[in-house]
Amino acid sequence: MIRSRLFWKLFGTFVGLTLLSAFALGVLTYRWERQLLEQRAWQQLRQAVASSTSELGERLASEGEPGEIATIVDRLAEQSELRITAISRSGNIVADSLLGGDELQRHDNQKLRPEVAGALSNGKAESTRESRATGEPTLFFAQRVEHEGQKVGVVRAALPESQITGRLRVFAGALGIMTTAIAVVAALVTYIVVRRLVRPVVTLNDAARAIARGEYGHRVFVPGSDELATLARSFNNMSFALSKQVSDLRASDQRQATVLGGMVEGVVAVDRRQRVLFANAAAGRLFGFSPTQVQGRPLLELIRHHDLHGILQRVINRGTPGQLDMKWEGPSERQLAVQITPLPGQPSPGAVIVLHDNTELRRLETIRSEFMANVSHELKTPLSSIKAYCETLMDGAVDDLDNRMRFLARIAEQGDRLNDLIQDMLSLARIESEGQHVDLVPVCVDELALKCIDDHRALAEAKQIELTCGDGPALKVVADEEGLRVILNNLVDNAIKYTPVDGRVRVDWRSDGNGRVRLSVADNGAGIPRADLPRIFERFYRVDKARSRELGSTGLGLSIVKHLAQSFGGSAGVESTVGKGSTFWVDLPVSVSAGEQLTSAS
Ligand code: ADP
């Protein structure tokens, strides 16, 4: 309360007004009392003179014994408590209640005293002046004395002003004490009233400041039913509503931040001067900044892209949305589709930039179109051959016995190729569509490898290729048996196909001790150039297209191997050196029971 300026303003004003009123009242009362006292004094003087004229008239007319007149004057003065003076018609003092005989002699003629001169000429007169006898300011009242129609002298009464001022001083003292007491009481009452008035205002002010600092939900208690109590109740309602609204806003903010943070698309909001207002985590990942530390920074510092800034500025200036496809050279090149929407307002206060990363989509689109081109090409080649042989036969070669059989054999060969191609494509499609849904069971790698070698022995011998098998332990992997057979067959097939006569092919398997089994097929054939290695598992990819086709390959075998291995929860890879040979491998998860066998076997 001591620090409340409102309190001191109100208290000061009220106390000031009270003091001013008390002072004004005091002055007025003092003046009024003074007037009253003066009126009474004149009244007293008048009465004293009036009551003495009849008694003194006869004495003054007969110019009687001065001693007798002096006795009357003294008595009258004693009765009225005034100075009474009897003055002769000629202006000489005959008797005076204040002056002795000697002093009377020394006194000059009174005829020229204003009250005496006035009384002699007008009957009555009064004056306030300094008395020669006492040297004090004095009130004089004089009345002419007549006897039998003749002016015989003047009677004068006098009262020193000090008598009035003395009484006034006593009155002023009492008035002062009373005024001070009233002022003190008034100040005390003012203090209590103003305190009671200001306290709720101070409390409300404190609560409003707390809310302004962000401490929502403050409540104040003001008893009673006056306007301040009503204001406090309204304040409490407002505070409650505000705190609810703020917590709702915070929750909604949090929800929005979570939604924006969880979005795959990058989102950046900027103001008119292209300073960042908000950026989500995806935008941070795309452009390599921390979303929490970029607020207020110019967008140009974070994303240096001329076209983006140009379109962004246009969107903000015109207030209409814009879009652009941009390339971003980050750690890896990204293809971004950018949508820019102006923030609502006229003029627009900024814009929101949404960035879709289309890199993967573009890559898939490229793969798909390449795949379509490859498929049509692969199907067209054998079909064209078949069509050409048929036309030749129809053109008459059907009657040529030697060529007829040769052409029909070629047609059958191309038909087989078409069949292989379609089979491989169907297998790939099936593996991709089944994906994770293959039934995985423990499969003995060693048994399957031996079986595969047996199946390919004739093919290998035809090329005088030494086909051997490692002496790995009995191991089980988690896979689909048919799928694993396809993997092994494809790899051993390729190894024999791309290894020249007198070469070597070896199938091996071993556990890596980390729950994986590596199954590998190594050859000492032509090998694969380093540049082709990253693409070797792609569909239709062939190192030497002409030679591969000659060998009746489809270019889908390794792709099938990779997809199958992945559907078993494993992976496929290759190590190769041109001229020295290649080693293709698949890593597959070991079966738990196989792990026990491994322990017992070792
Ligand atoms: P295909 O064998 O039907 O052509 P693949 O997908 O199995 O299709 O093989 C793709 C390409 O990889 C082959 O065309 C060939 O160039 C190369 N390749 C596969 N295996 C070997 C290998 N063991 N040695 C050398 N090149 C190979």
Write up this protein.
The chain has 602 residues and is an alpha+beta fold. Helix content is 55%, strand content 20%. It has helices spanning 5-61, 66-80, 101-106, 114-122, 161-212, 227-262, 281-287, 299-302, 306-318, 359-394, 401-434, 445-462, 481-497, 545-550, 557-567, 592-601; strands spanning 83-88, 93-96, 124-130, 137-147, 150-160, 266-271, 276-279, 322-329, 333-342, 350-357, 441-444, 466-469, 476-479, 504-511, 516-523, 571-577, 581-589. Strands 2-1-5-4-3 form a 5-stranded antiparallel β-sheet. Helix 11 (401-434) runs parallel beside helix 15 and helix 13 runs antiparallel to helix 15 (557-567). The two termini are 91 Å apart. The relative contact order is 0.05. The model is unreliable at 594-602 (pLDDT under 50). It binds adenosine-5'-diphosphate (ADP).
